[in-house]
Amino acid sequence: MDGLQRxxxxxxxxxxxxxxxxxxxxxxKTRKSINDECVELERQLKEKHDLEIAQLNAKSEGNGLPRExxxxxxxDEHHHKAMNGKSLEHDIQGLTISSSQPxxxxxxxxxxxxxxRLARRAVEQQSMITQAAKExxxxxxxxxxxxxxxxxxxxxxxxxEHEIRSDGHCLYAAIADxxxxxxxxxxPEPSENMPPITDPPVVPYxxxxxxxxxxxxxxxxxxxxxxxxxxxxxxxKIRYTGEWGGHLELLALAKAYNVNIHVLQGNGHVEKVLSGxxxxxxxxxxxxxxxxNFGLGEHYxxxxxxx
Length: 307
Known about the structure:
Layout: H1 2-25, H2 31-61, H3 67-98, H4 104-107, H5 113-138, H6 142-157, E1 159-162, H7 170-181, H8 204-218, H9 231-240, H10 247-257, E2 260-265, E3 270-273, E4 284-294, E5 297-305
Parallel strand pairs: 2-4
Antiparallel strand pairs: 1-5, 2-3, 4-5
Helix pairs in contact: 1-2, 2-3, 7-8, 8-9, 8-10
């Protein structure tokens, strides 16, 4: 029985390999007929295996049939086995013959409209990118032009630039550097316009933030009309966050320190933020203002005298 089972398993593997190969090579037109052939071959092989097992079991049991009748059964089984073997061999041969490669016409596939559409779109996008690159090359380099104009202004005004870190504190850090250069205190003396500041920060730019916030809080009517948020929220941002400073903060600092602040721009224009005190004796703090030269956008640097 073990030998017969091994033989059956081998025949099943052989048939499965052939039917699998046939199914792989089938086209849409031949797929149904191939599947039917494979099912029929599997059925015939199963019948053959069942018969062989029955014959082996009959021999093992010795069922006591008359000799003549046993011979007839053996002859019939032998004949049936031979016929089944020939039929299976014939069908498998037919399977091999019918598994020829599909014709050249069958291999011609219909055009894939989606792929063609995607290909056209990719070509159009690449064309747009190329065109945009050409237009960008024709545009002026604003960063280079601004840097060149600034250097020209520095030379004409006998100034050198002290670069400030590009972050939200640049205006306050530039003012702190100017005060240090002119040997002015970071915390101004208390006066009618400026309230006293207790426990000032150690970091210079934080000190100028606290001074700006204190002056604005002391003169709310001068600033509230220009705010888009409650005054207290605005003051908290100045004191404790990296919120950028602008013209309102420059005005508060000019008045708090009693100095004039000159802001040099790339086009040569100097914006003057005055303290409001009569006379021309107030110290002048110089800043440079960039629109295009830094990654975060607008930026302030400190300008010192060249001599």
